[in-house]
Design brief:
- The complex is a heterodimer of chains A (about 375) and B (about 325).
- Chain A is about 45% helix and about 15% strand.
- With about 375 residues, chain A is an alpha+beta fold.
- Chain B is of the alpha+beta class.
- Classes of the chains: A alpha+beta (about 375), B alpha+beta (about 325).
Chain lengths: ~375, ~325
């Protein structure tokens, strides 16, 4: 939990960073996007995703035979962190590139790898997460969605909720019960399914978030007929597979870089009103972000080495989420007393957007309380 | 220093510290017979000279390595001026001087009125003044101890008169650079002490029972421990980042100063949170002089403030960001590691 191995960027990673920055500058200049806070959840633009795919910036670490680019994890880190820092519209492909693709690579059939991964890498196939249910939030093992074997494969029934981007996604990885719990051990008997969202019996309805953006969804599965190969990985291993997925989900730079866009927008204004108090806030944010990035890079390195650093990922997410919220609060404090007439155009709505996303930072992908529990368990307290 | 040598040094140091009567030494503020024996044992193994050049009889280690090894004293809450001596002797050696074999402290070159850490435990002090590096002999009669400060920190009532060594400071060794090097020492000590605070708090909450079960089984207590673990992990990472930067940039022409400012800021912030959470989990027992927790938290609170507090270093960082023509954090955050 305390060891975060060094991940060094080589000269080619630096060159890649310059390439990404030039691309982003050109996109911004041509009106390709307006920087957004929380862009990896709220700003979906399939056209932008296709452009990234064309440049080889999706599926970067996957083997070439599946449309990937066989590049080191440091390169993927460079692309993702630059996209976040720029507030680019990366939501459409984010989940597919971050976790679903790797999961298919690891657990999918050869056919699934050959047909789905190249489309994800091209920015043409998007995916959603099917874990939470109306009655199973933090208590994930309480899910009621069930899959039963049939002569032709599986029948899936149940309801998934809070699935970001399900309304534009092509697939969802669904966690479902395939056999009963063994007494109090509810983590057995769960399996993961790779579900084609165009199948009959699936109904996706949008849910508006606090700010009115319909980014997440409730999905109903009503006796959906799945082929046998929809079972992802091993029947009954769903819980462990899910935890592996969460290590990918929790440790990336999106856990601490989403409000930076608003701060960067305000910095020139704050600089014109610089004083000790404001300098102190800026310095503290810099120190916290720099160190957290070092830790996040360490987790990326562990993932590349084939480890599943679930606890280290929880540490990064736990601190990153709280830092995100601190940044927004500190930004408000730094702006206090600066006449609104001097604010650059767009800052007020960026700040408003960041404020309205505050509650979600410490909830999505595992609440602060759940993460603290994971860390405590690692220390032998539970 | 080779990694292998560093490991040997750390293991040797660990043995000496484990064997020494550290609590008794602490009770006597790090002076007296036991303290002398401990220092003699450290000196015999050459540990105070980790960063002195090999031709001058040292290990020839980089300052970043020296800090890393010497901060082990903080994990044991040892009342001994090893970190400061390692750095002061290393800096004298870098200035081309033969570092004297004695306990050395570092006078804060920016806040010159600040108390001298370890004052009553020292034989000499390193002073940077007017671009010159001096090593002066300390006289105990000229030290006024700060009441309730740890490790014999005190103010000098008279400027040291006996200058043992004087040389032109290397050009890179500005007052800010010297303060940063000392601050890195404190950051490393804080990170090390926090690991002990975590272990103590874990053990205590697993043994102590209330309401019929161990404290560790209460979610509220688990959350305190998680916070301590997270802040400790971040502090370790911050010190590694700064140590690596100083190894790569030993004359602080590039990014090392900024990375050290980041480390002192981050560890200082963590020290407050870790101390508060650990004391809360320990209840009244942690607030006694007798129980071991205080030996760590009292030092954390002192180290936070020595050689620039987290507030000062954060403001230093912020001023450097805000004074740019196009102020932006991202180019700094995304610097190569």
């Amino acid at each position: 939990m305390f060891q975060f191995p060094r991940l060094e960027f080589g000269a080619d990673a630096d060159a890649l960073r310059e390439e990404v920055r030039a691309f982003l500058a050109a996109e911004r200049a041509s009106g390709g996007f307006v920087p957004a806070a929380d862009c990896w959840v709220s700003a979906a633009d399939p056209e932008f995703s296709r452009k990234m795919g064309a440049r080889g910036w999706l599926g970067m670490v996957w083997p070439k035979q599946y449309g990937g680019h066989n590049r080191p994890v440091a390169h993927r880190f460079v692309v993702t962190e630059e996209m976040l820092a720029a507030g680019a519209p990366v939501a459409a492909h984010w989940i597919a590139d971050r976790q679903t693709g790797s999961h298919i690579l690891h657990y999918g059939t050869q056919e699934q790898r050959r047909t789905i991964l190249p489309r994800i890498a091209a920015g043409e196939c998007f995916t959603a997460i099917g874990m939470s249910e109306p009655q199973a939030g933090s208590d994930l093992a309480a899910i009621q969605t069930a899959a039963t074997r049939t002569d032709t494969g599986w029948t899936l029934s149940g309801r998934k909720i809070w699935s970001t981007g399900a309304h534009y996604s092509h697939y969802m990885i669904v966690l479902a019960r395939t056999s009963p719990a063994e007494g109090r051990n509810r983590q057995v008997g769960l399996s993961q399914f790779l579900v084609d969202l165009s199948l009959p019996g699936i109904d996706i309805s949008g849910i508006e978030d606090l700010g009115g953006t319909p980014h997440f969804n409730e999905t109903l599965f009503d006796n959906v007929k799945l082929p046998p190969e929809a079972l992802l990985g091993v029947e009954g291993d769903g819980w462990a597979q899910c935890m592996g997925e969460l290590a990918l989900e929790r440790s990336g730079p999106e856990r601490f870089l989403t409000s930076l866009v608003a701060l960067e927008k305000a910095l020139p204004l704050i600089a014109r009103h610089a004083d000790e108090r404001r300098a102190g806030e800026v310095g503290s944010i810099l120190a916290n972000l720099r160190v957290l990035r070092r830790m996040s890079l360490g987790v990326a390195q562990m993932l590349e080495q084939g480890e599943s650093p679930a606890t280290s990922a929880a540490v990064v997410k736990e601190m990153g989420n709280r830092l995100e919220n601190d940044i927004v609060l500190k930004l408000r404090a730094m702006l206090a007393g600066i006449p609104k007439g001097e604010w650059p155009e767009g800052l007020d709505s960026l700040l408003r957007e960041a404020v309205l996303h505050l509650p979600s930072n410490t909830l999505r992908g595992g609440t602060t309380e759940i993460l603290r529990g994971i860390i405590a368990r690692e220390m032998g307290m539970r | 220093m080779e990694r292998g040598t560093l490991t040997l040094v750390t293991e040797g140091l660990e043995r000496i510290l484990t064997d020494a009567p550290l609590e008794a030494i602490d009770e006597h503020a790090g002076i007296g017979r036991d303290a002398e024996l401990l220092w003699a044992s450290l000196a015999e193994n050459g540990y105070p000279r980790l960063c002195v050049s090999e031709e001058n009889g040292g290990f020839g280690g980089a300052l970043g390595d020296g800090v890393e090894a010497a901060s082990l004293t903080a994990r044991h809450a040892a009342s001994v001026p090893l970190v400061d001596t390692v750095l002061a002797a290393g800096l004298l050696s870098a200035a081309g001087c033969e570092a004297p074999e004695m306990r050395l402290g570092i006078a804060d070159p920016i806040d010159t009125g600040a108390a001298l850490p370890h004052a009553s435990q020292l034989d000499g002090v390193l002073i940077l003044t007017g671009g010159r590096l001096q090593c002066a002999k300390l006289q105990r009669a000229h030290i006024t101890l700060i009441d309730k400060a740890e490790d014999g920190a005190g103010r000098l009532t008279a400027a040291p008169s006996e200058i043992l060594i004087e040389a032109e400071a290397p050009e890179w060794l500005t007052p800010q650079a010297l303060r940063a090097i000392a601050a890195l020492g404190r950051a490393a000590q804080m990170a090390a002490a926090m690991q002990s605070v975590l272990n103590l708090t874990l053990t205590y909450t697993q043994e102590r029972e209330q309401f019929g079960r161990p404290l560790a089984k209460f979610q509220a207590i688990q959350h305190h421990l998680s916070d301590i673990a997270c802040e400790t992990a971040a502090s370790i990472a911050a010190v590694e980042l700064a140590g690596d930067a100083l190894r790569a940039d030993p004359t602080m022409g590039g990014g090392a100063l900024e990375e050290i400012a980041i480390a002192k800021t981050r560890c200082g912030e963590a020290a407050s949170k870790v101390s508060a959470a650990a004391h809360q989990a320990h209840g009244a027992m942690g607030f006694t002089r007798e129980y071991a927790l205080g030996r760590f938290t009292r030092r954390l609170w002192q180290w936070q403030d020595e050689f620039g507090s987290e507030t000062e270093w954060a403001a230093y960082l912020g001023r450097s960001v805000l004074s740019e023509a196009a102020p932006s954090l991202w180019p700094r955050i995304s610097q190569p590691i």
